[in-house]
Design a protein that fits this description.
three-stranded antiparallel β-sheet, about 20% helix, alpha+beta
């Protein structure tokens, strides 16, 4: 069974053009490509992003030669694009819907143009192809037949632990996960048209029941072309689809192996769940064995497109390497195992690892914008409205001026960073600190911050309960855990909050102690803050509420 996985308007883009940016509205991002240019002096082909010739340093011709597609044409003409991205809240896969007709589909419409140059968390698929439906239809056909036994016997001496290439001569064996020894060509290869089919994991009629935990995963030996169980295997013998990817947990790969927190230093292994990757690094290519770069890239598309929907293939001919990006993570995981140690059309043995993030600024911008789009789509899928609330301040409301913010050195921070400005609302919420003293039946009363009203004697008893035998209004304000006595200078003629005596007694709470042999004379004072009478001994520095202590 053959699949035309490269039909569509964007399949030839990355051969003669260069991605120069990502544009579009939220949910409608697409990549803008510009044709590469040839130097008129030396005939050197140059990327569109280069302003001078790579060989002779000649200048790039004036003007821009963008590749026109329906999305770019609609953007330039001001037309509305009806198609938009969305995320399925159950499978967390990107799909597309038409705002005018209500039509939905998994495949990226041609009207949206090519997907962003780098798609971040979620794959978008190729524009103008029906690859998702093709793979689903192919799996349906495979499940009509039993899986084939790829081997009658597995020779364990041909395998050793993955990541440990050292052979222990004492124990006479390797350690770890199995992989083919050395860098030789893999002895077997999975051929889907011949080997794929249903197994016990598919729960076909007449087959023995399989444990639930096995029904999520695929057979790693099948991907190597070396499963000796066939239809009796408890794992899937086919390639993952969008439905399978949605069912696979983030902590496991498609084969049921636990993923790690970080990638290995050599970017091999099962991958990272903290930094999921859908792009494979392919090394060991032999570009000189192919008649043209186009033929070389076609071979990569053919071999890697067998295992899942490929979004993009970027071949760097001068380095003989390539980067293959799949739409979903599980397809990349299956392809990594299936293609490790395999050969392409010219017999080269390729080396496959997980790829690092693309350092290209265009790709970095595309990742950032694509992830923001995905975040908005996820919020909408969860029922969170993104529409403007239309809030406006009342017509009579005047926005206060910005409050000045100064650093430790006294410099105005708003001059350095205006974004630190915030309204000065001190005048609106100024605390009222004037005491609420009342006269009831000729007796002075006090009201605490909590609203409790008490007479002078009750207030003295209240202070003695919390602060000892004697106290001051200032200490009560600073230490009372339940109520604060409102204090100000309402009795003062000039409205000041300070008084000579009050300032002298505010720093420490006075206490009554037994009189010393030379106790001095107690003098009567009135606290300007509360209006209460207290006594002060100038010789000892003591103060007391109520009546003067007896002199010695």
């Amino acid at each position: 069974m053959s699949l035309d996985l490269k039909s569509g308007s964007t399949s030839q883009l990355n051969r003669k053009v260069t991605a120069v940016g990502t544009v579009g509205e939220v949910g409608q991002l697409f990549t803008v490509y510009e044709s590469n240019w040839k130097c008129g002096k030396c005939g050197q082909d140059n990327y569109a992003s280069r302003r001078r010739c790579y060989r002779c340093r000649g200048h790039k011709p004036e003007g821009e030669n963008f590749v026109m597609d329906p999305a770019l044409a609609a953007l330039q003409s001001g037309e509305t694009i009806q198609w938009k991205e969305a995320i399925d809240p159950t499978s967390y896969q990107v799909y597309y819907y038409n705002q005018a007709t209500g039509q939905t589909q998994w495949e990226r419409p041609v009207e949206l143009g090519p997907a962003p140059h780098a798609t971040g968390w979620f794959g978008r698929g190729q524009s103008g192809t029906a690859a998702a439906l093709m793979y689903a239809k192919r799996d349906e056909d495979y499940l009509k037949r039993p899986a084939r036994k790829q081997k009658e016997f597995i020779d364990t001496t041909k395998y050793h632990t993955e990541g440990n290439d050292q052979y222990n001569i004492w124990y006479g064996r390797y350690l770890g996960d199995h992989e083919v020894k050395g860098k030789e060509r893999a002895p077997e290869r999975c051929v889907l048209d011949r080997d794929a089919g249903y197994t016990r994991a598919d729960n076909k009629a007449g087959s023995e029941a399989v444990k639930k935990k096995h029904k999520r995963f695929f057979c790693v030996h099948f991907s190597h072309g070396a499963c000796a169980k066939g239809e009796d295997c408890t794992y899937f013998h086919r390639v993952p689809t969008l439905v399978d990817d949605a069912r696979c947990e983030e902590l496991f790969d498609c084969f049921g192996r636990q993923r790690h927190n970080k990638h290995r230093d050599d970017m091999s292994g099962v991958g990272s769940f903290m930094k999921p990757c859908r792009t494979l690094f392919v090394g060991g290519l032999l570009k000189q064995q192919y008649d043209s770069p186009k033929e070389h890239e076609e071979a990569i598309w053919k071999h890697f497109g067998e295992w899942g929907e490929v979004e993009n293939v970027n071949v760097i001919q001068r380095l003989s390497i390539a980067f293959v990006r799949y739409r979903v993570r599980t397809s990349a995981e299956f392809a990594k195992e299936a293609m490790t140690g395999q050969a392409l059309d010219r017999g080269e043995i390729i080396d496959i690892r997980w790829a690092h993030d693309d350092p290209n600024p265009v790709a970095q911008d595309a990742i950032d914008r694509a992830n923001k789009d995905a975040l908005f789509a996820l919020m909408q899928a969860k029922g969170i409205s993104l529409q403007d609330t239309g809030f406006n301040y009342p017509a009579e409301y005047d926005m206060p001026a910005a409050k000045r913010v100064r650093g430790a050195d006294g410099q105005d921070l708003l001059e350095q960073d205006p974004s630190l400005a915030y309204p000065d609302t001190d005048a609106q919420y100024q605390q009222q600190v004037q005491p609420q003293q009342q006269q009831a039946d000729g007796q002075q009363v006090f009201q605490t911050a909590s609203g409790k009203v008490m007479t002078e004697d009750e207030y003295i008893a209240y202070c003695q309960q919390y602060y000892g035998a004697s106290s001051s209004s200032s200490s009560a304000q600073n230490n009372d855990p339940t109520a604060t006595v409102d204090s100000s200078s309402s009795s003062s003629s000039n409205g000041s909050n300070d008084s000579a005596v009050g300032a002298a007694t505010s720093s420490t709470a006075p206490s009554t102690t037994s009189s010393a042999p030379d106790a001095g004379t107690w003098e009567e004072f009135v606290d300007d803050a509360t209006g209460a009478t207290y006594y002060f001994n100038e010789a000892t520095g003591e103060s007391s509420w109520g009546s003067a202590p007896p002199s010695s």
